[in-house]
VWA domain-containing protein
Amino acid sequence: MIRRVALFTALLGLVPSGLSQTTSGPARSDAAACALPAGPLPTRTRAVFVLDTSGSMQGLGDGKAVIFGRVTAAINTYVRATRPDRVELLTFDAGVRSRQSFEAPAGTARWNAALAALKADGSNTHLYRSVQAALSPLTGAGTYLTTVFVLTDGIDNDPQQSVTPDRALAAFAGRGPLDRLHYVALGTGIPAAARRALEASGYADGVTLPVGTSPDLVRTGTGGGLLTVTDTAGLPVPFLSGTALQLGTGPASAPVRLATPTVQGGRVRLTLAGNVPYGAPALLCAAPVGNGVRPGQVLLRVALPGTARLRLLNPAADRALATGEDVVLRYAAPIGQRVEGTRIVNAPAGLRAEVWAPPGSRLITLRLTNTGLGVGTRVSPTLLLPGGLGVTVPTVTGAPGGRTPLVSPAATGDSRSAVAAPAAGAGWTRWLPWALLCLLLGAAAVVGLRRRSRGAPVRPVRPTPPVAAAPGVPAVEGIEYSEDRLLSLVGVNGEVTGVSTPLDGPFDVGHLARVPHLSGLRFEQHLHGLRCTQIPPDIEVSQGARLLRAGDIVRPATLLGVAVARPARAPSLPLGSLAGLGLPLTLSTHGQTVHVVGPYGEHALTLRPGLTDVGDSLDAPALRGLRLAVTGGVVLLAERPDSLGLRRPGEGESIRPGTALSGMLTLDLPGDVTR
């Protein structure tokens, strides 16, 4: 929870005046008290405020001080200083009065308005019943590191006495091993039963402040937190100078060591004892400070510049999903990072997630399907790797249109985090594709042997130099397929440009790289490398002294040569997202959907009410200014730039604006020299 260092460090120097009593369980100083917990470790932070809004907080009734405004200000100070990923704000008097949730609220207008709207005008303090109701819905162990603050100036006056302090604290059933609760008594003593419950809970403590004293929640909440280590030379920590520290151990702990055994100036120096994967955890523990206060424990995540991290292989994948659409994201884990057991956490309703992470592999495949996200809804679930490393998935946005997806029976249990697994009783089916693949490879090997035995000649590569493409399009002389199965284009000047490629299905290099003169050159991922599915007749791709043919497998760590016989395969204006379709282009309509079709593929565009600029909608500058409209279910040509022709096959003149579009139409692009 500690991210904004400057304000946080300044606040650590503030010790709450008049601290009269602190209660907690017995402190332990042995090594067992500082052990990194087993299982998934949290990657996000959450603060929960259980706030008394009875009238006594405003000095009414039996109130001893007007403290409410200072308490809400202290809550805001804590949120701004520690910047939790999520905040739960609950108010109570005669039971829970309100519950509000906020994502990263620090400094936001909604958060500030919510605090300003709070009022303390309740008539009772049903404390334990309210704490139980506040804690019982909290889940997310393994995802959130949670700090709870109970803030009250009174004692429980529930006439039913149905909930005891023990039962209230036990309601936090979804608690993680590093979660903490702090009972802050504002100008009143903590009852004996509550003190005993805090001591026995294993995760809670209590502090009593003198009448009228403002709470310092940053100081109070230093028993836990989450720190990201980006610099080992001076890590700001939430402990006072001189505090003795130790690093916890555990099977997943990072090889990190303390360079200094105590806090100096609010900071501590660390050293690395080996290669540390990005996001590796460690536990930093403070020695007991007396008065029975629980030792502080802060979870560390090592994220030093240059450390190996999970790499997204196709960052340009389209993540604007209409209902029923999906996107496949591919990740490569660093060497030594185990991926088996990777799962998705905190995926919202309306987004189905499926994860494939084979044992022994470094590749992770994540398929996200929009099963009901609202239009414009933006979500970013977390990919959780073994050992607790969490990686935030790039934002997925709900888009208009689409259809209701067919949900398999295996995915109907929990659409928020469905992890792909073989169906019970049908485990043999997962081996069927591999068996078929082995048969096909065996057949291909036999055919290859026969061809060699017949002495099939190998066609030599003509030393055709790389040719410049259309203006503004870079010339490409090679394609690099790395050991990590990444595809890159090599320019004539030696510049290397990565291309984001999908994991499944064929892809067009020209389309993905937006290099028009490579349109029609298609590959697909294969078990043993990259399989070539199509090579246009005017493109030569060579591997060593041999020309590549459709069906050939390109192994990882291979550099291919590329020669284009006809450089002007595209107009002078860039085709953008349509680059891989090739030329010539035609346009046809089906209902309210327009299809732009080329020799190597097509794009579909569903028209919305009003005018639609085809070039802007498809990100194709060559078609910019071609505007269509829908009237009575008919697609009309609204506007057409003079430089762009749209005609029926066999006709010489372009159709005029106001004409209804039907059948297949030819697009005459400016500078088109392919005909």
Notes: Residues 476-564 form one domain. The longest helix spans residues 432-453. Residues 112 and 487 are 47 Å apart (CA to CA).
